[in-house]
Amino acid sequence: MANVSAAPVAPASALRFMPWVFAVLSALILTLVGSAIMGVSVSDLLGHDSAARHFLSSNLAPVMFASMVLFLLLGYPVAFALSANGIVFGLLGIDLGLLQPSLFNAMPDRIWGVMNNDTLLAIPFFTFMGLVLERSGMAEDLLDTVGQIFGPIRGGIAYAVILVGAMLAATTGVVAASVISMGLISMPIMLRYGYDRRLASGVIAASGTLAQIIPPSLVLIVMADQLGRSVGDLYKGAFIPGFILTAMYALYVFACTVLRPDLAPALPPEARSLREPNGASGNRSLGVLTLIAVVTGVLFAKQYPDNHPLDETIVVSIMVGIGVAFVLALANRQFKLGLLSQIAEKTTFVLIPPLGLIFLVLGTIFVGIATPTEGGAMGATGAIIMALSRKRLDMALLKQAMYSTAKLTTFVLFILVGARVFSLTFYGVDGHVWVEHLLHDLPGGQIGFLIVVNLLVFGLAFFLDFFELAFIVVPLLAPVADKLGIDLVWFGVLLAVNMQTSFMHPPFGFALFYLRSVAATKDYTDKVTGKLIERVKSSQIYWGAVPFVLIQMAMVGVLIAFPGIVTMGLDQAVDTTGAELTQELQINPDANQDALPPASLEGEAPAAPADEPAPAFNAGDFAGNDAAPAAAKP
Fold this sequence. Notes:
Blueprint: H1 12-15, H2 18-38, H3 42-46, H4 51-58, H5 60-73, H6 78-96, H7 107-115, H8 122-135, H9 138-150, H10 156-171, H11 175-192, H12 197-208, H13 218-227, H14 231-259, H15 283-303, H16 310-334, H17 342-367, H18 372-389, H19 395-428, H20 431-440, H21 445-460, H22 466-483, H23 488-499, H24 510-518, E1 524-525, E2 532-533, H25 538-561, H26 564-567, H27 579-585, H28 589-595, H29 628-632
Antiparallel strand pairs: 1-2
Helix pairs in contact: 2-6, 5-6, 6-19, 7-19, 8-18, 8-19, 9-10, 9-17, 10-11, 10-12, 10-14, 11-12, 11-24, 12-24, 12-25, 13-14, 13-22, 13-23, 14-23, 14-25, 15-16, 15-17, 16-17, 17-18, 19-22, 20-22, 21-22, 22-23, 23-25
């Protein structure tokens, strides 16, 4: 899942401008409406042959886009900035004769399309699932257990934070809560045992942002909606890249411990609490149980049919492996066999329930048993059952989870409605054509386009979070990518990886702000060791994030160089060139001829199939007389 944090709060300097911006917008809208009623247009005020009118008529799309960016930089709420721009420039386009008044007749239908979109129902389900799990104390249990497993090796706590961050990403999906939880629990331990502050800060902040790429992710749901692709395909495409990125984080920590062992020392023996009565670690028992689970999963994968996608095979095999491990641990406890050590038993009962829930949800989606919406509902039910079984579910927790879910869902839908209002006018003034001409003719073809787009998204991520990027930028880029022959599922996963940097950019990344809010701001005395621990400086948090931002950008390069990482998990298209199908089509050539669309004349667009619904609106339907010559150009 993806970030479930609240909408970013505008800075105090921007808040001072909001009443004035609102007043100016209101005056402008009233002026445009009043002038239309009185029969006085902007053209009359500017002069029909004036340079200002000609400039506005020729460049209304770029002026509209620049105005929207200015509103966002002023800190105005995104949903209202998009809506205001759409309405103001729609009225201005009508006043200039570029659009017909019937443009706004399509607005109710487009807003209803947002409310009628079943795919978006997955957002509240997955959000509620994550919040219930996070508030039931799962993060604390996971960090404590995994930290004990990796504690004896250098960088062990850092590895634990990365692995737990990946698990929280796939269950809670709360970037703010993940970073804050891991910061509160892991940061004091890391500082106590001599971890470098920059490395500790970077690991905690970066691990929290994995929620944007590891399924089931909210950003992938939004991306699928904007790209017009299946949510399941985006999940399948992002499954392997998400874990590769996790491995790259761990590889960076390993490199740090090899080159500079003092940056991340191992836990001392007195800090390892999960030990056997004879003083043994118990890792041998855990290793045997893990080996049994892995062997079971591999054997099952070899028996799984070859015609299924790779990611489906991986998910189902992992479900079988962890299921066997859980049954063995349950039998050991129930019959008091004494075959498992303390650490093996605790690891099984702490790790496997959330892992089972993750792969149960993903498995049903990948296999095709459930849609993402149904998978989200099943995940929310499973989260409640897990919280009840741990005796940590009460009315206060449910109220908090439902309130936060309603808050985030409303936030997303308001932005989406605002984006629909903005795009209605933007497409009406041929803004999509302007963007297409701007990006389609870049040197280098697909590679040139991808380089420019990723640099653009990387730059905008300094100021916008992933929701704003997905609703504003992606709909403008997708048609150009499609015309260049770029697979939109792969393109969506690529942008999702890039958008992770919106949380990590110094000095504006929200993950860095969350960590700053819980990291020590003053020197303090550690309660366990009695040592004086120095505070964590903001500069150390920022510098610690830089290597992980570079790793994220390196992952973008890996996906561009090896697109098969995404596409190999997707369902293969059905081969329609077989001899049997060819013979079947040749049985009745007259009937087949009747089924074909009529041949189009040269230079004429082919007719649409009869059963294909017409689009909700066409930009040309609303174009005024001034826009007709432009639309006729090749």
